[in-house]
Fold this protein.
Amino acid sequence: MSDVVAEFELSFASGPTIEGRVRQPSDRASVTVLFGPSGGGKSTVLRTLAGLERPQRGTIRFGDETWFDAATRTFVRPQQRGVGMLFQSYFLFPHLNVEQNVAFGLSKLPRDERARRAAAMLERFDLEGLAARRVDEISGGQQQRVALARVLVMQPRLLLLDEPLTSLDQPLREKLRGELRELLRSLGVPVVLVTHDRTEAIALADRVVVLVDGRVRQFGDVQQVFAQPADEVVARYVGVEAIEEGRVVETRDGLAAVEVGSAHIWGLAQGELGSRVFVCIRAEDVVLERGATGGSSARNHLPAQVVSVVPEGALVRVLLDCGFRLTALVTRTSSEELRLAPGEAITAVIKAPAVHLVPRG
Amino acid sequence: MDWPAVWVTLKLAALTTLVLTVVGLPLAWWLATTRMRARALVEAVVALPLVLPPTVLGFYLLLAASPRFAPGSAYQQLTGATLAFSFEGILLASVICNLPFAVRPFAAALGSVDPRLIEASWCLGVSRLQTFWRVVLPLAWPGVLTGLVLTFAHTVGEFGVVLMVGGNIPGVTRTLALTIYDDVQALDYARANRTALVLLVFAAVSLALTYTVTQRRPGRR
Amino acid sequence: MSAKSEPAGNSLVRVAAAADLRFALEEVIAEFKKAEPDTKIEATYGSSGNLSTQLANGAPFDIFFSADRAYAHRLVEQQLADADSEFVYGIGQIVVWVPNSSPLDLEKVCIGAVVDMAVRKVAIANPEHAPYGRAAEAAFRSLGVYDQVRDRLVLGENVAQAAQFVESGAADVGVIALSLAMAPTMRDKGRYWHVPLDAYPRLEQAGVVLKAAGDADAARRFRALVISPRGQELLARYGFIRPEK
């Protein structure tokens, strides 16, 4: 198992510079997700790993192979890297049928070997009946399977996926998300995947690299990145739903009290007294209660008024005003039991460790 | 019908098309895919024969081909024959004059193939050359065919440059277009008319066939 | 030395001839073929100036018939032909020609035809490189009509094209070679007036055999026929005057 170590800088003639830093541990196959907003450079980083772009500075190594080194002007062409690249729009060959697409990269093999491998891959992805069909005659989901088959039949050493689920409809996307996770697990090959969808990142990633405006803002294990964004830019993109500006008005025992709007909220200490911070609270971490209970470990009990209640599948997104805007995500059952409706008074309960304070600027 | 002239004309058109395919396709591919700044300059040079009067081209080519100047004398030393007033001379002139008729449709067709398809092929381990054969050409063939037919038809009709460089030698450089010119001067209008009709019908048929064949496919991209 | 010698028994004579000979020379060629059926003769016609320039640039002809002495002689000066191969084969003449449909009474107005009010275009060969065009221009000057006619001139690339211009009606009047006016295709289509011989320099038409000729012997045999009594007789039918040697 080889690891990917890439650190490079790629400048475009039109101006922007994209910095790529990807480190994939070699002890086990893992999925590294490049996460960030559209246009942030994620696809560029992926293309550079594939050898489709050539950076100005830096190095890209795969195991003990050097794929790119600006200093020695080394550059290995994509054909030699053994990388499987899945493009966002698949880019299946329109003039070939499904089977020919899947077998495309196998041309150097003898004919029967080629046919055998292609057939095996078609079967694995449930495409046998479609072998003779042209690619514009099959559905989006089928096209994705063909694209995967085409790439995987080459037995790549590194798999690169560019927004693999983005071009699919929502219901299909959710279904395939799980299947994709299983598939990537089963491959035993390192995977680098690009997405701007938070749920996808959480679902598929072992490690996350957050890329915003061409710069790597944070990288680490998925829970670490999503629970503890390094700065407010990251926080915004990893989807911490409440990001409010406040001022530290008290610090005690490793905790800080922050004045946010007209509320006081306790979080883990960050920054000195009087400093400005962003308060980041995930909706999942907000518990709603009616009335006071006898003691609670949660430091924060905020009286709030329900502003709106919006169903989201099995959950309900509740917008509250507790002196500042706060979003809570609760189950529908709970919402009905609590009789949540706009105008109702409710208490928002949040543990201090769940209140993430991010120093301002 | 002046059969030697028919033969000269067909030979000239076929060889011009062949040379321009071999030379023009790689050039067109470079034009379609390069990011170098020199591209604009090369495009301008390729388009030059379109805007220059045939007499300008004929004049410079005649000079270059004459044994009095370097290219012509080099040719003469190599082959023992003059470049001017020979079939090889008008072939060279024809290739230069038809460069834009071949290269521009080629480049447009090759450039219309989505670059991501090419990249997908590379990432599957297929070399650049193989990718050209297996992905680009099959998708670009209508434009390539159009370029070939335009070149062939245009060569059949080429007059001014062929006359200047070729000298209207019967059986060698006298093409059908030139025979019409001769027949008119000899006041043999009937013969001129027959030849002209043949050329007209040929041009119309070849263009109509090309456009029919290339339009039957669904549009690419 | 020549680049393309024909194998024996497959003689080829490539003739470059002034445009005024377009019809006259064909008769001589036909006569030559009677005597030598196996020898091929290919003729290319054009203005003497153009042809001599092409020859100077290596055009592959064996024998050149100019419409004047100067162009032929130039080839000798340029070492492309031997001085002793130079020969004069006839004296040419120019005429004023109008199609049958023209209302002009040539016998009455003579050169005045070219400046008649109803005449818009007058066709001549291009004086820059055609001796017949130069002769026409000289005649205009000496007969005092040049200033009036110059705006109406239409220049043919050679004298045969000038004849075609006036024959087709594109021009109203043409000053062309007598040999063309007397040709079967022109003869019945119009009428003409001889321009006085003293109005323009003599069109002494000369030729040369090229040094680079393929089958020089065949070329010389053809030349011999042209200047022989039989050849001269054929040329006389087209108005060529025998040269006094």
Observations:
- The domain at 240-359 of chain A is CATH 2.40.50.100 (OB fold (Dihydrolipoamide Acetyltransferase, E2P)).
- The first strand of chain A starts at residue 4 and ends at 11.
